[in-house]
Each structure stands twice: as structure tokens, then as C-alpha cells.
């Protein structure tokens, strides 16, 4: 079975990317990361890519629309994984890769998502709202912000003494499980999108 | 220690009320339900109250503002539990009982809550959105709809073959644990409201 070619877009340290690389290393995913693109030249994710012998590309924010698409097409990428990518994607790019872009968001969508909710802001909003449960969501990207069909979600308890920082750490732990699992399901052909619903083979109808 | 006097407002079958009565019967709650009020004369919750020797009152929707308050004051109620009550409460009533009205909502607030989200509609919205996690929330009532400080939340997994009906059944199961637990915490003086945050004694700072 031909391996699925994965392209990853990352703005930061890339621990979510690492979780996918680790799962690939353990032979759990029928795929390989062929290129890592960052909108920040100093992103440690680029260093991670180089360490794994993966092509690492810095792409200026202004070129993020057509530039990213050209790079991914050049590398014959099948599926794009956003592992903490902060630049808004070009609409045409999203259309071209419809149903083939996977994003992870650090809350239980539709709570604490959409414009302005990224990174630590998500967790600060959750703590200030006073929720007792938060979590993470892996979803396909559509033309909205955090609005595409949901692949996987998992919950974490918010404790009375949690701050945005401690909650972020708890949620990151489950992100590191959810993202590789979603990529695994995608690469084994187990995901089917029906409107807003993502069907997972072997799970219900 | 004096028992906390509980008044319950219910529109339907009252299984959530029953879960509180059962917990009281097991000696878990330092409180007693002294009156059950329904806006529907045929609500089975009224029958449940009579079976337990509790005062059962039908209150016409039009009298729900001042009528309910007079009844609760007459019975010297300390805390009001909304166990599936569909009439919007009078603003003055909510003010008078600030921090003393507990509601249960069948989703993880702030998802699938607010105006128009009640009963089965909540679960239909969750299933149609395609979430993989839902849950229930117990919260204090403020002047908004489902917007008050959150006491407890718990999550349930949404399966691929879940319908609004099957999801409702799953969530109801956790409602029957969350509501008595929240009432228990209230009646033991373990809850403290700080702005939007509900602090629970013995849990963090």
C-alpha cells in the first residue's frame, strides 16, 4: 500500500508535529511527512524536520497563499496537517485541498473557537468563563475559522486552581494523542466526510 | 446542622428531580425538598413529589414570576433547583435568589446553549454539528440564558451512530449524577461564587 504523503504547516515549536513523527516512527501511520513549512524562520519545527531528514521550508507570510500551494504540489503532498499554524490560509488553497487539510484546535469546538481564539487565548477564555471541562478537537479545514467537520475530540477536566498555562499543558497532552490518531485514520482511508459529519470506519454506521 | 430547604421547579417527568430525591434518601445531601412546582398540571414530577410526601404545586405560566416566588418564600426555601423547567424565570425572581438557583443543561456550556436550545433541540444541534464529545452542565442561574457560573460539567463521547435520542439518553445518565452532586455540594456549603468562577472547597485554591 502506497504511503500517504503528508505536508505539515507549523508556526511554533512543533510538539504536535513531533507526536505525528513519533507515531510514524512506531509504524502506526501509513504515511510519511515529506515537507514541513513554517511562516516563521526561527520555528523549532523546522529544526525537528531537518533532524528527521525532512525538507524544511520557511515561507514568508505574504507568500503563504500561492507559495505554500506550489511547495505542496511540488512535493506531491496528499494531505496537509496544520500543527499549530497561525497564518490564515488562502481561500483558493483551502478549496484546492478540500477534505485534505487537518487542523488541531485546543478546545472542544464549538466552544472557544473562531476568530481571535488561538494559542493561549483559548485557554485564558476557558478559564475566565469558568468551565469545568475543556479539551481538544481535530477537524478538517473549511473556508471558515475552526468551522470544518470534526474528526476527533477528547475532554479534560479543568481544576479549581488551573490557570491558562496549566490548562494549556493538560490539553497539549491530549493533542499529542488526538492528532497522530486522526492522521493514522486518514492515512488508512478510514475517514469519510458526509456534510458536516466525519464517519469513521468500524465505528457505528 | 440545619437541613437546607430545597424547592424544585419542573416541567416534565422529573427524572432529574428523582435523582436528587434518591440521593437525599441515601443520606448524601444535607437538605430536603420541601416543595415541587410545575408549570404543567400533568407533569409526572408532581406525582413523584406526592409519592414522597412533598408539597406539589401547579402554577400557571402567567403567574410564574410572582407566584413562584411567593410559594418559595412561603415555604422558606433556601435553594431552588431547576430540574427541566421550561418557563423563563422572572428577572426580579432571579435577582432575589441570586446564587441560590441551580439549573442543569444537557450540553457542555458554552456549546449548544442559550435561547432556543432546550430539551431535544440541544442534542439535535450537537449531532448535526458533528461533535464527537458532548456532556452536561450544572450552573447557577443569572439573568441570561444558560450564562451563569458553572458548578460542574461532565463529558460523554458521541458515537458515529448516535441520534439526538440516543445522545439524550447518554447525557441524561450523567445529568443524574451531576445534579445530585451539585446539590450535595451546595447543601454542605462547599460552593463559593467568585465572579464567573465557582470555587469548590477542598478542590484547588
Give the amount of beta strand of chain A, in percent.
25-35%
CATH superfamily of chain A: Formyl transferase, N-terminal domain
Any idea what the CATH architecture of chain A is?
3-Layer(aba) Sandwich
Mean pLDDT of chain A: 94
Strand tally of chain A is 9
Oligomer: homodimer
Question: What helical percentage do the residues of chain A reach?
Answer: 25-40%
Structural class of chain A: alpha/beta
Q: Helix tally of chain A?
A: 6
**H/E element sequence of chain A:** EHEHEHEHEHEEHEE
Backbone shape of chain A = globular
Largest sheet of chain A: 7 strands, mixed
Spatial separation of the terminal alpha carbons of chain A: 25 Å
User: Radius of gyration of chain A from the CA trace?
Assistant: 16 Å
**Tally of individual domains of chain A:** 1
Low-confidence stretches of chain A: none
CATH overall fold name of chain A: Rossmann fold
Greatest interface and its participating residue counts:
A-B, 33 and 32 residues
Strand order of the largest sheet of chain A: 3-2-1-4-5-6-7
CATH class of chain A: Alpha Beta
Describe the model.
The first copy, chain A, is an alpha/beta fold. Chain A has a single domain, classed as Rossmann fold (3-Layer(aba) Sandwich), CATH 3.40.50.170. In chain A, 33% of the residues lie in helices and 25% in strands. The first copy, chain A, has six helices and nine strands; from the N terminus they run βαβαβαβαβαββαββ. In chain A, strands 3-2-1-4-5-6-7 form a seven-stranded mixed β-sheet, with helices on one face. The model of chain A has no long low-confidence stretch (mean pLDDT 94).
